[in-house]
Amino acid sequence: MTVNPSGWRPSTPANEEGETQTVTGNRALMLEEPLLFEIGSTEQSGVDFPKFETNSGRLGGLERNRGIGLAGLSEPEAVRHYTRLSRQNYAIDLGLFPLGSCTMKHNPRLNEKVARLPGFADIHPLQPQETVQGAIELINQLAFWLLDLTGMHGVAMSPKAGAHGELCGLLCIRAALEARGDKREVVLVPESAHGTNPATAAFAGYRVENIPANKAGRVDLEALKARLGPDVAAVMITNPNTCGLFEPDMKAISDAVHAAGGFVYCDGANFNAIVGKVRPGDLGVDAMHINLHKTFSTPHGAVARVRDR
Ligand SMILES: Cc1ncc(COP(=O)(O)O)c(C=O)c1O
Predict the structure, then answer these.
(1) Total-model pTM
(2) Tens of pLDDT along 240-283?
């Protein structure tokens, strides 16, 4: 069922169960709004333009001789479209944030303000590189700091949140396995893992299996070793874990996973507790993300890192 605060129903057809279809098939938050081009016909205009004199003399015969293909909407129709879109922005001031949204709920407002400085906020993705050297320098500097702090060999600055970084990292692992023709199907996740870990693994196409915790609340190394095998693509370990406990067996876990041909993903959401003290890359981690809002208090960000092996 479509959740739409305005009560407005999208025109997209419903399937047999009465659920609205999305283009990607991804139902996610079901925030659907047709494009302006789906609402208004390009054959008509929303406003009456005065008849204009021909410019042919001044344009040397290059003047447009057909419509420009804009959606023909009246002003109220266009305003309603954008107002509906604006009401679909979910905010911490509107209600609770669900799982996998720490980046959104924990971003200090000051950081939001800094991210909106015109030098950042006004950049267009297709802007010539020579006009955005300041921003590139900043991103580059941060990337090198992160490489130093994590001991990883590469860094992606594009993921927008922790869960997004997880997906980036797991897709890298998937690509590495596929490159060697290895069809592994299972990702092992400790019982205490954040819900985004199994969700990410499932979204990346893996079957998720739990690893139990030992009495001390850490990963049960023996149980993990017993489950490792040729079907295990990766193990996702949060370190320090969700209970705030450092996984002292991390190196032994990595060695065992690598010996079985799998990869080690580290959920680095809690990296703040160990930053500057231990480097995940030295512990055998192959890919990880960091929740920047936690470790560095940076707006809307996470990064994914990959280590060559
Ligand atoms: C351990 C852990 N992993 C992953 C995430 C997901 O991060 P995000 O909310 O930024 O997607 C969080 C926060 O929700 C977390 O605490």
Answers:
(1) 0.72
(2) 888 888 999 999 999 999 999 999 999 998 898 899 999 999 99
Q: Element (H or E) spanning 250, and its range?
A: helix 250-259
Query: How many angstroms is it from 64 CA to the middle of ligand 1?
Result: 52
Q: Residue 284: inside a domain, yes or no? A: yes
Instruction: Determine if ligand 1 sits within 6 Å of the CB of residue 267.
Output: yes
pLDDT, position 61: 78
Domain residue limits at 238: 129-306
How far does the centroid of ligand 1 lie from the alpha carbon of residue 122, in Å? Answer: 28
Instruction: Confirm whether 242 is domain-assigned.
Output: yes
Q: What is the CATH number of the domain that holds 272?
A: 3.40.640.10
307 pLDDT above the threshold of 90: no
Q: Is the CB of 272 under 6 A from ligand 1?
A: no
Q: Are residues 181 and 239 in the same domain?
A: yes
The confidence band for 98, taking pLDDT boundaries of 50, 70 and 90, is low
Whether residue 194 has its Cβ less than 6 Å from ligand 1: yes
Total of domains in the chain? 2
* Rg of the chain on CA atoms, in Å: 25
